[in-house]
Amino acid sequence: MKEIIVAAEISMDGVVNNPEMFPEIFKYHTVDVQDYLDDLLYSAEALLVGRHTYEGFAKVWPTRTGEMADYINKMPKHVASRTLKEPLSWNSTLIQGDVVEEIRTLKQMDGKNLVQYGVGELTRTMLDHGLVDKFQLLVFPFTFGKGGRWFDGMDLKRFNLIECKTYKSGAVLLRYGQV
Q1: What is the spatial distance between Cα 126 and Cα 121, in angstroms, rounded to a whole number?
Q2: What pTM did the predictor assign?
Q3: DSSP 43
Q4: Which of 1, 21, 30, 127 has the most beta carbons within 10 angstroms of its beta carbon?
């Protein structure tokens, strides 16, 4: 059975999903951080994304070149959205019908992991139904002050710390499993 890994890059104050933050984040992408990000991507056979992440990634990644870009552009993407319609571009498939059941079916297939980038409503849905196996939070040593804090309003969930790793840039990886 595949694992579902939710990966997020966040500021110390919990801001995530703010594109204005990316220039600051990239300052902390030292070689060791990039190695972690590469390993995470290559551990996956497909991505799970919501509409916002899909639209943002589909604009950027097809314009990039290199081994990582080739891998992410070729891998399947499963997109959860109520507003997008098929056909989707960028080797992507719209999750049809019951999102929870479709993700359960994907998870039960043989193969490598499924990674979700871009936390949000899809993450909450998967959490509420026990589908998330691991959280991998890459926390950067700055506060951003504005933007979405995706844990706000979420029901209490408990997690087990699996790993804590510090990188040369001061970024910290917190890897959690769901209890």
Answers
A1: 9
A2: 0.93
A3: T
A4: 21
pLDDT tens per residue across span 85-133: 999 999 999 998 999 999 999 999 999 999 999 788 999 999 999 999 9
The pLDDT tens digits for 4-28 are: 999 999 999 999 878 889 899 999 9
Rg (CA), the chain: 16
Of 43, 90, 42, 84, give the one whose Cα is nearest residue 64: 90
Using alpha carbons only, give the angle 35, 37, 39 rounded to the nearest 5 degrees: 65
Domain boundaries defined on the chain: 4-178
CA-nearest of 90, 91, 122, 94 to 8 is 122
Identify the sign of the CA torsion 141, 68, 80, 23.
Answer: positive
User: Please, what CATH class does the domain formed by 4-178 belong to?
Assistant: alpha beta
CA-wise closest residue to 6 among 127, 108, 115:
115
